[in-house]
Amino acid sequence: MDYSVLAEVYEKLESVPSKLAKADILAEFLKNVPTSELHKVVLLVQGRAFPGYSEQELGIASQTMIKAISKATGLNTSRVEEKFKKTGDLGLTAEECIKSKKQSTLLRRKLTLDHVFENMKKLATITGSGSQERKLSLIAELIVSAKPNEARYIVRTILGDLRVGVAEGIIRDAIVNSFLEHSTKEEKEKSAAAVENAWSMINDPGEVAKIAKEKGIKGLEKIGVQLGKPLQVMLGVAAEKIEDVVEEFGEVFAEYKYDGMRVVIQKKGNHIWLFTRRQEDVTRQFPDIVELVRKCLKADECIVEGEALGIDPKTGYPLPFQTLGQRVHRKYDIERMAKEIPVQVNLFDVMYVDGKSLFNEPLKERRKELMKIVKPIEGKFQAAKNIYTKDLKKLEKFYEEALKNRQEGIMLKVPDTPYVFGRHVGTMYKIKPTMENLDLVVIGATWGEGTRARWLTSYMLACRDEGTGKLLECGMISTGLSEGEYKQTTQMLKPLIIREEGRTVWVKPKIIMEVGYQEIQKSPNYSSGFALRFPRFIRFRQIDKSEPDSLDRVIALFKSQGRAG
Ligand code: AMP
């Protein structure tokens, strides 16, 4: 397929804001994509060269892209930068640069989808000396042959910022509409459920599309658990009071809420895999957990889930989440780190045991199955501490005990509900002490003054409007960080800078901070319409969390404080 076909679809997608319209455009397109190219196409429409869970990254900085555009178009870098300043978007910059170089049309070869995809994949594998130069050549090679609109999307995809608004839900709808027959509402729901099932199990939208096309609804329904592939975990919601949950559901499981790293453990004979909530494979980084799994999980095959907590070897208390986080992306000194930051695994769910899928079983049953296969080592590998009751006094006491043991709070879980992959569910509630913190993404920052002039010391935070996908400002934060954390933040933000205006920089939205505050106020100064009063930094969240909180959540919290006041 020619890349220009995809570029045309991107243009259509970009021009309509509505999700329904986007799903229709995508469905029409997918119908005509040859099966052999479906996998690539589904990745590319999401702006990816690798599935979401892959550890591979294209890793291209804006500066490299500016050089690549310059090399491909013959315009010098300062001209490219000038255009970039005006557009704020390197994709549009590349497009304009190509338009302004009319004579280059003669040199163009037609770009195929394969060529673009292969070059992108190569970018992730190039390392070592001279790697920047080689990456630059691969990108320039594509831009030289690209039509203006093709260049726009190639550049954006490589920078990880495609901006055509194709979220997962849209792909699901498009798969249903393009490949599965349905004439009634019920049939459509059945098709959607089959896509959902396959998606949960294999977590690879391109593969799901292929199965839908080749084997239809039956093929999708048949897909079972695939060991060794990461799953999308079930997510809870916040509740304000224990009694609200008990009033609605009666008896509940209350469990400690541990502040560590969520870990999905998969076992198939001698093979063991550990995945995070973001579906990263962290097996290599945690040989100590692997060892514990060998000793303590009595099943040939299983998938269980829990929270790995860093434990202070001196006090036995949990270590702050960030300390454990140091182990997550470690490539060297893994054994030493395992000794310095020992872990404790607290299991709270099981989805599969020896050929039997359990996710549709009620939590009550799953808990029983879990207890059957865990042979605990106290303090190291055990079931999460829990009680089962509707007695408010007992629950309050349990909550206090959790806090006294320096855990984050408790979770309340409804006993007769299934495991739902990848969703926030209204059957699992978090209870934490203060006004709920917000997870917000840093989109800009300002250089400090005096002795701090070399650090970025205040940060513009944003939440996401889930309707439009846009990031909306909710205020600046500059307190709560230690000197070391200012430095760390500066180091993390520098490679993400996309634009500078005086002392202010704008950055790619990658760094998520958990932010505490006193209250949320309405504010015309920020694009969300809200500002945080007395915001303070609590911790980084980028390691185990990929998305900032939604505008809806900000609004809900704003309203809830209104009721309380
Ligand atoms: P939050 O990150 O504040 O949205 O809280 C949800 C996270 O709490 C989950 O992703 C888990 O990593 C963690 N967690 C800790 N203890 C539990 C538990 N007992 N049950 C479920 N999740 C837990």
Description:
It is a single chain. This protein is 42% helix and 21% strand. The chain has helices at residues 3-15, 19-31, 35-45, 62-73, 77-87, 90-99, 113-125, 131-145, 148-159, 168-179, 185-202, 205-222, 242-249, 287-296, 321-328, 334-340, 363-373, 392-404, 483-493, 551-564; strands at residues 235-238, 252-257, 261-268, 271-275, 301-310, 343-353, 356-357, 381-383, 386-389, 409-413, 424-431, 438-447, 456-464, 471-477, 497-501, 504-507, 512-516, 519-522, 530-533, 536-540. The protein is globular. With 565 residues, the protein is an alpha+beta fold. It folds into three domains: 48-159, DNA ligase, ATP-dependent, N-terminal domain (DNA ligase i, domain 1), CATH 1.10.3260.10; 253-431, D-amino Acid Aminotransferase, Chain A, domain 1 (2-Layer Sandwich), CATH 3.30.470.30; 438-560, Beta Barrel (OB fold (Dihydrolipoamide Acetyltransferase, E2P)), CATH 2.40.50. It binds adenosine monophosphate. Adenosine monophosphate is lined by residues 236, 255-258, 262, 277, 307, 348, 384, 411, 430.
